[in-house]
């Protein structure tokens, strides 16, 4: 990584001084068009300069930043890493992974046999699951075929889309009213808008555990939009109860700069936490709530909290979906299905390679349901 030469002004320290004048050179944080000298608030500067070499005044990036950059490179969930003494080829490694997490299409009969006589409840991530990952997040459209099969699934099973996106954004993509939407990683949950609601009370579910954070999120969105606008390709997305900083279109040489900007902003907002998804940095309230909690909440809303006759099926591709996979393992009910073409650490039980395979799996599930209903 490029060294950032940080030189603190040699002015005599003044009691109660709240700012430092700093000269920065050779830093990915600043382009040549930026001035050389900056005034930093004392508290923020001291937090940013967590480690410094006193001999040559070179700033050493804090370990947390280095770890974050490594995580950004690895995609999500974290790829399996072979040890240095492991001579197994990539193909053998993938074969071993497939044995542990077999294709949900190949194991379809096993999955539906476990669901006989029980109620399947479907949970679907959006990006990378129903739609392919694309360069522009605003163009992550699903196909007509996928939309049709989601409608069919919703007519056969209680169905929810659980996503980091805002409900308004994902609903504009999916355009299906007969399902539950859990946006902002489950911090914003709405029920079906038609009369055929699966909710046992026949009332629309509305749950927003992070409502008090709305003004803070909106403020941070504006700050990050301003501070990241000089980084080509960076995009800040307001997902209502959380926000995303997309770096899919950012040159990898600028990832460190982007990460440092984001972390420097969050210093002033300790009630927000930084997590990393697939080509995205995500900022969320520090409340104990995630996609796994959203899954449990929806099962409870549907009347299946303590039922042994329910089979939750969650399909997702991202690190954030691991929270839901973990909940299913802890419940000892249902199946997590990871969408990935490469081996990754996961709490899922099965795998699918891409949205086209998700489409095929959902089609087969609808066909199985229709067939079993006809046999009853």
TrEMBL record:
EC assignment: 3.1.3.12
One Pfam family, short name: Trehalose_PPase
Organism: Arabidopsis suecica (Swedish thale-cress)
UniProt-recorded name of the protein: Trehalose 6-phosphate phosphatase
Xref: CDD domains: HAD_TPP
Known cofactor(s): a divalent metal cation
InterPro entries: HAD-SF_hydro_IIB (IPR006379), OTSB-like (IPR044651), Trehalose_PPase (IPR003337)
Keyword Methyltransferase in record: no
């Amino acid at each position: 990584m490029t060294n950032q030469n940080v030189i603190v002004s040699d002015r005599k320290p003044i009691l109660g001084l709240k700012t430092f004048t700093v000269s920065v050179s050779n830093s990915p944080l600043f382009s040549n068009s930026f001035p050389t000298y900056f005034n930093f608030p004392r508290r923020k500067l001291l937090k940013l300069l967590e480690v410094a070499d006193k001999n040559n005044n070179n700033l050493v990036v804090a370990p947390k930043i280095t770890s974050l950059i490594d995580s950004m490179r690895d995609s999500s969930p974290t790829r399996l890493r072979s040890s240095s003494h492991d001579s197994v080829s990539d193909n053998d490694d993938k074969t071993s992974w497939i044995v542990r997490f077999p294709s949900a299409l190949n194991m379809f009969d096993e999955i539906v046999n476990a669901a006989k006589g029980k109620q399947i409840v479907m949970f679907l991530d959006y990006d990378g699951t129903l739609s392919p990952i694309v360069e522009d997040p605003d163009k992550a459209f699903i196909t007509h075929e996928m939309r049709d099969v989601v409608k069919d699934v919703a007519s056969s099973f209680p169905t929810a889309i659980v996503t980091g996106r805002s409900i308004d954004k994902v609903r504009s993509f999916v355009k299906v009213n007969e399902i539950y939407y859990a946006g902002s990683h489950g911090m914003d949950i709405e029920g079906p808008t038609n009369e055929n609601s699966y909710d046992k009370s026949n009332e629309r579910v509305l749950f927003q555990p992070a409502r008090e954070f709305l003004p803070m999120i909106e403020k941070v969105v504006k700050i990050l939009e301003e501070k990241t606008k000089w980084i080509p390709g960076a995009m800040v997305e307001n997902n209502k109860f959380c926000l995303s900083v997309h770096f899919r279109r950012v040159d990898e040489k600028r990832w460190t700069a982007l990460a440092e900007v984001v972390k420097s902003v969050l210093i002033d907002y300790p009630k927000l936490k930084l997590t990393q998804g697939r080509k995205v940095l995500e900022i969320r309230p520090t409340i104990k709530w995630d996609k796994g909690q959203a899954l449990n909440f929806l099962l409870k809303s549907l009347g299946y909290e303590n039922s042994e006759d329910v089979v939750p099926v969650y399909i997702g591709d991202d690190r954030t979906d691991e929270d839901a996979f973990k909940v299913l393992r802890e419940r000892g009910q249902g199946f997590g299905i990871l969408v990935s073409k490469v081996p990754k650490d996961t709490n899922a039980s099965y795998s699918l390679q891409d949205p086209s395979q998700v489409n095929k799996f959902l089609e087969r599930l609808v066909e199985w349901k229709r067939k079993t209903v006809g046999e009853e």
